[in-house]
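SEVERITY: medium
COMPONENT: batch folding queue
REPORTER: lab tech (J.R.)

DESCRIPTION
The queue accepted two submissions in a row. Attaching both inputs and their returned structure tokens so the on-call engineer can compare them side by side.

ATTACHMENT 1
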Amino acid sequence: MLPIQLAGLVLVGRALVPKSRSFSSPSVKNNLSPFLGKRNTKSILPQRAVPSRVPIPDASAAIRALYNGLTGAVSQITSQITSQMSKGTEDYNAVVKSFMPDNAELLIPRRPSGSAGFHFADLDGSSQNGLIASFKLENEIRTLYLKKKGEEWYEEAEVSSYGFDTLDFRGTADLTGEGKKQLLLGVSSGNEMPTLYSYSLSDGVFTELFARSYDRLEVLPAQKTRNTYDKVRLAIWNKRDENSYDIEILRWNGSELVPVKNPASYYYNRVAPYYFRKVKQAPGDVHLWYNLAEALEKAGAYKDALIAVNAGMRNQMEPSLKDRYLELKKTILDEAHSL
């Protein structure tokens, strides 16, 4: 790696490490860059060559500094899907199996990590959690929603995913903002890409809201600020090639999924750190440098994006990729100077 790349990485690494324990997320209102503080169009110009008398740190230290800065700023969003329905010790596995055919197989979702064979949620708006479980029977997956009245359990609703044999994801989220949660099922068959189905429950019947294929999936919780309220959003990653993804941040508008207006915070918190980890593993890969620069540009971190572009362009590459680099660099400079 050349000296100018290392100098740029060190500068970015220092800028990314928070000066205090508090760290602000991207803000359009106060014109802050999510990585480098207040945006300054003068500061996004290419770095000057570093004089030879200035000591240059080794590449691993420079990458480590930038990586630590990125990951230190990543907000940790966790959700606990399995929860206790009461303080009792009822055997919920036995409850679920009592509603399954004898030759059915109880399924545990692959994701989220740590999922159990069942979990609880309020899908009908009654403010009472129901028991959700899935099982496989021949060539279909069935998902049950069980409720309890007094001491007796009963089946309120069931949905069938015909032609699938793998439960990749199961979760719930209030996508509509109506106060009750919708069921999210990611199912697949063989080596096929999973498909995410969303269902809304009303009067004991599940109605499909949408279906979307995905490679990676993240459910983003609702966000409420003093002036705005954002519903639960979905981050859908679909693999473009071995090193990159097409990423959509979507919300439900009442009839369909539509892109959110400003996805910068997600690129800041999730996408840029993901690609930086990839760059750290293979610092000579020009495609990864491009992906990192593109993610930083979409996060509004123009100075960091320009450094990543310049670092990537110092490597040999095909003319078509070089043209993409030049186009991205122009976009970064235009957007930075328009602030």
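ATTACHMENT 2
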Amino acid sequence: MDHRMTRPAAMTQARPAQAGLLPKRLDRAVSWSDFRTAVRYDPANRMLVAVPAISAKRAEHPWLGEPTALHLRSADAEVFRREFEHGAVYWSERTGAHEVHGEIAARWIEVGGEASFLGLPTTDELRLEGYRTPGNGSAGGVAHFEGGTIAWTARHGATIVHGMVRDIWALLGWERSALGVPVSDAAVDATGVLRGCFEHGTIAWSPAGGPEITITASEASASSGAPGGADRGSLDEVPSGFAPHA
């Protein structure tokens, strides 16, 4: 996975932010008067860090377009955001400023945005450099959040990977592993096992049984077109007691 904070090649035509999908919040708009007042009377106000950080992120990604609203502050004053023509930038003291846009933003908002188990973004959208389709080059993107990861590909859409499934996928090499990219959200099945389905196999995890990794194609890494994919030996190196933290 390429950790340069750039837009995925397959998403050069960013769609406008879908205001109708935004969850209901008790937010307050931040005016220029508020900012000047904080400068003069409240130098410890988070606004004095958040507003410049959001502006700097917008300058880093000019394709976000023009702002469509004032800066907004959450009811508990922990999170600031500003919406633009083609995405939004969120800031908090613990995560810094990061942009979200397109299909990944829509999926994140669908499950509840920053109020969901995913929390706030901890990276901008990154290219899935290890996932390629014939003739298209890099054809996907990924964004990491406090509680999980959302991966997007033209073939499978935006899918959520979280918990131990995300941690094991990361250990194996993300999309460059023999498993490839996720094809559906990781979820707890009827037996209480957290299971994630990928193009070439599955990752299952339970506290009692630990990790169980299944590869469904012997030439998975070759067929995915991912250079340096994990082989069977590297998969066997995951110990039964493996329990990293995201």
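NOTES FROM REPORTER
The helical segments are 32-41, 47-60, 102-110, 163-172, 220-224, 232-236.
No errors were logged for either attachment.
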